[in-house]
């Protein structure tokens, strides 16, 4: 198959809109899998995927299809397939959007599946933009038209108004009844471009994914961009320079099917004697060992949003867990693992995940597929702390943060996300309340149709990792859909940016939106670039320190609005205004923060530009700096059992929430820890300050004392019960803590 006879496409959709089912139907239609045989959602191979009904890993399948052209084509065999189609099924859940963007790198187009009854949901929006930004052809597919509540016209109107997609181009299907499916593949061929690679150029292929197979070793999924690859070829990795020999090569049809060759535009697998998946770097460019090529643009590396400690649960040992984790990460390269030791729990691992569901899935796979028994600690997001001596630390484990570092914290950073929420308008009130409780800042509020609203919020990641989604679902009777994307360039990157912001004499401008402009006046010429930045606690909109002459500055709409409102000036007027130029910073803040600002700096009220309605506060420079430090304060919350800090229970919380979280943690623990031989005190502390305390009084001497003179069987029963109870206990210092207690602590936020 030459490239013009190949199409690489993906199916993207909000969860449950029917991606996997549609994929099944297409595989059946092309005879790739037999109809009615095997399980539904063929491409969801993992047990977790089947149990939870979600797709976790992207899967690829190659199909052959006969496309009838308008003009009659002269071929020997009328029915021979004349097109090769590669279908890449993607996960729908937010945590796995990393997998989605990876899959899209190998595609030229997508089927954007939307449920005819539910309409466009949050992930539809997110996925649309992923595809749109990658310049892919987008074919809207309105699925589930067999449902009684289906309303395809409404969905068409949404596609038009939200994405400017031509409603006449939408396909109407039912993956259940088969209605309309016959148009899907012909549309793929007609509307999605052929892969653009050059057949006669040296080989370049993109490593899409890898996993470990007991028998074959590391299997890599690859997309051949230019050139061709044959069995026996020697290939090299652009990332490491290592050379491998291709010992097996083929397509997924849908099982591994050796073909001996992969040509330009094809997607397939290779086995090349890589010993571990560490060598197979996802996003790497592979090329012929003898030639050198320009590497293809790689993917953004996986970004770990949630960290948690994994320890062997009692009754299992460290080596078993170690072995299980090592094997599982061969199939899930997006997890980061480092060894750590806890005084309470012993030896274990600190793992980084893409999100909470990802963490759960990893946990479940460890237990189901590798038989490990795992105890996990409170998930945390990566924070950065900066101290008065200029040093900074990234904290992945709250226990590692010194309670009394002996120097003051000058700033802390926590990752935040931009959340998209779509919901019927009657639920707007409670959702706004929820978001502001979670320290969210509204960025956008718009109607996507008369009864449905799209809201964008900037939220600290910490506030959504714990139970946000469930809460959102419950207060909206399940009608809200939710997705989020990372709001920053990278925690560390941001730190540097802030440094230049606050210390250089240069001009800098940042907005509460996702964009941040870093400007450089080192020469007379202005140069600037937009970088993504956000800050959760305070959204400093614009900070002026020194302005040179500025031309060609692009401002976001929000910034323009603030600026115009502020002074009635246009931007260029503003920068000529000496007062603004030298003295003033502007903060666009949430009402909540504004309140605390006013409390903190009573005199802010007298500032001329303070406007409660528009949430804008104008501060002079030193004040702005102080406020910023104040608002960003995060503190380490220790839990002490009998006066001894339990490292595995430490968390980092926002200043303003510490009291409540401390109280809740202590109450939870009191409920779960049984009375023991001695009195147990449970305390929550920030540094040396105790903020909450409970006591569990001592039990009488021992369980048996209750049955003096009692009969033997009863005694034995009690002893056994006690033993049974023990199994699920974790001894922390002198106190036995049941494992559920650790799990319950996860739910406090
Ligand atoms: P995914 O999460 O997008 O992969 O969605 P699935 O393919 O797993 O489908 C979710 C649910 O919708 C399953 O229970 C399917 O049986 C059902 N479903 C899929 N397509 C249709 C359809 O066209 N009509 C109806 N009525 N149900 C469908
Ligand atoms: Mg699925």
Automatic annotation (TrEMBL):
Q: Which residues form the Tr-type G domain?
A: 4-196
Q: What is its EC number?
A: 3.6.5.n1
| GO terms, molecular function | GTP binding; GTPase activity; mitochondrial ribosome binding
**Main location per UniProt?**
mitochondrion
Provide the residue positions that the database annotates as binding GTP.
13-20, 89-93, 143-146
Record-level GO cellular component terms: mitochondrial inner membrane; mitochondrial matrix
Identify the SUPFAM superfamilies for this entry. Answer: EF-G C-terminal domain-like, P-loop containing nucleoside triphosphate hydrolases, Translation proteins
Localization, UniProt? Mitochondrion inner membrane
Protein name in the entry: Translation factor GUF1 homolog, mitochondrial
What species is given as this protein's source?
Dendrobium chrysotoxum (Orchid)
């Amino acid at each position: 198959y030459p490239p013009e006879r190949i199409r690489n496409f993906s199916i993207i959709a909000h969860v449950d809109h029917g991606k996997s089912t549609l994929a099944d139907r297409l595989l059946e239609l092309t005879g790739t899998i037999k109809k009615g045989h095997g399980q539904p959602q063929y491409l969801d191979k993992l047990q977790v995927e089947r149990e939870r009904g979600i797709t976790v890993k992207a899967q690829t399948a190659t199909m052959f299809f006969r496309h009838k052209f308008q003009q009659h084509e002269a071929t020997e065999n009328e029915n021979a397939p004349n097109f090769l189609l590669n279908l890449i099924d993607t996960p729908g859940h937010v945590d796995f959007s990393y997998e989605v963007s990876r899959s899209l790198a190998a595609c030229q187009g997508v089927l954007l599946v939307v449920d005819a009854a539910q309409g466009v949901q949050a992930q539809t929006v997110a996925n649309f933009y992923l595809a749109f930004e990658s310049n892919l052809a987008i074919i809207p597919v309105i699925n589930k038209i067999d449902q009684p509540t289906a309303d395809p016209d409404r969905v068409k109107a949404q596609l038009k108004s939200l994405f400017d997609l031509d409603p006449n181009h939408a396909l109407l299907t039912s993956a259940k009844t088969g209605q309309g499916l016959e148009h899907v593949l012909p549309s793929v061929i007609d509307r999605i471009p052929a892969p653009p690679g050059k057949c006669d150029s040296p080989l370049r292929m993109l490593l899409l994914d890898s996993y470990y197979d007991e028998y074959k070793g590391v299997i890599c999924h690859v997309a051949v961009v230019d050139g061709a690859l044959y069995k026996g070829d020697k290939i090299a990795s652009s990332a490491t320079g290592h050379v491998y020999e291709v010992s097996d090569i083929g397509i997924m049809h849908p099982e591994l099917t050796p073909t001996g060759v992969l040509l330009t535009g094809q997607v397939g697998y290779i086995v090349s004697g890589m010993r571990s998946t560490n060598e197979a770097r996802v996003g790497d460019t592979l090329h012929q060992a003898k030639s050198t090529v320009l590497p293809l643009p790689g993917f953004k590396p996986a970004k770990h949003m949630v960290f948690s400690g994994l320890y062997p649960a009692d009754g299992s040992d460290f080596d078993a867990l170690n072995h299980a984790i090592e094997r599982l990460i061969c199939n899930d390269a997006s997890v980061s693992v480092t060894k750590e030791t806890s005084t309470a729990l012993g030896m274990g691992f600190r793992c980084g995940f893409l999100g909470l569901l990802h963490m759960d899935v990893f946990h479940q796979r460890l237990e189901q597929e590798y038989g490990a028994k795992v105890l996990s600690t409170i998930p945390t997001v990566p924070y950065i702390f900066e101290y008065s001596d200029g040093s900074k630390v990234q904290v992945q484990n709250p226990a590692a943060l010194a309670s009394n570092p002996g120097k003051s914290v000058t700033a802390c950073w926590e990752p935040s996300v931009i959340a998209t929420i779509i919901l019927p308008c009657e639920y707007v009130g409670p959702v706004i309340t929820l978001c502001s409780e979670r320290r969210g800042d509204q960025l956008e509020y718009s109607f996507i149709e008369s009864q449905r609203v799209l809201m964008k919020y900037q939220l600290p990641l910490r506030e959504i990792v714990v139970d946000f989604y469930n809460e959102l679902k419950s207060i909206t009777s399940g009608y809200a859909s939710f997705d989020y994307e990372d709001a920053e360039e990278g925690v560390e990157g941001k730190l540097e940016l802030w440094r230049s912001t606050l210390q250089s004499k240069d001009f800098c401008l940042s907005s509460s939106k996702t964009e941040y402009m870093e400007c450089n006046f080192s020469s007379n010429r202005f140069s600037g670039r937009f970088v993504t930045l956000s800050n959760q606690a305070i959204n400093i909109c614009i900070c002026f320190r020194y302005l040179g002459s500025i031309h060609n500055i692009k401002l976001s709409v929000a910034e323009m609005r603030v600026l115009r409102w502020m002074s009635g000036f246009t931007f260029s007027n503003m920068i000529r205004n000496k007062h603004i130029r030298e003295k003033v910073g502007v903060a666009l803040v949430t009402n909540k923060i504004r309140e605390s600002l006013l409390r903190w700096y009573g005199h802010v009220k007298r500032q001329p530009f303070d406007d409660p309605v528009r949430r804008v506060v104008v501060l002079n420079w030193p004040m702005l700096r102080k406020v910023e430090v104040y608002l960003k304060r995060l503190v380490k919350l220790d839990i002490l059992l009998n006066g001894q800090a339990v490292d595995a229970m430490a968390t980092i919380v926002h200043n303003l929430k510490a009291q409540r979280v401390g109280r809740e943690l202590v109450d939870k623990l009191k409920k779960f820890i049984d009375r023991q031989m001695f009195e147990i005190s449970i305390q929550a502390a920030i540094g040396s300050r105790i903020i909450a305390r409970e006591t569990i009084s001592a039990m009488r001497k021992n369980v048996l004392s209750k049955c003096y003179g009692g009969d033997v069987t009863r005694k034995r029963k009690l002893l056994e019960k006690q033993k049974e109870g023990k199994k699920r206990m974790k001894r922390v210092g002198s106190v036995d803590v049941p494992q559920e207690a650790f799990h319950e602590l996860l739910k406090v936020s």
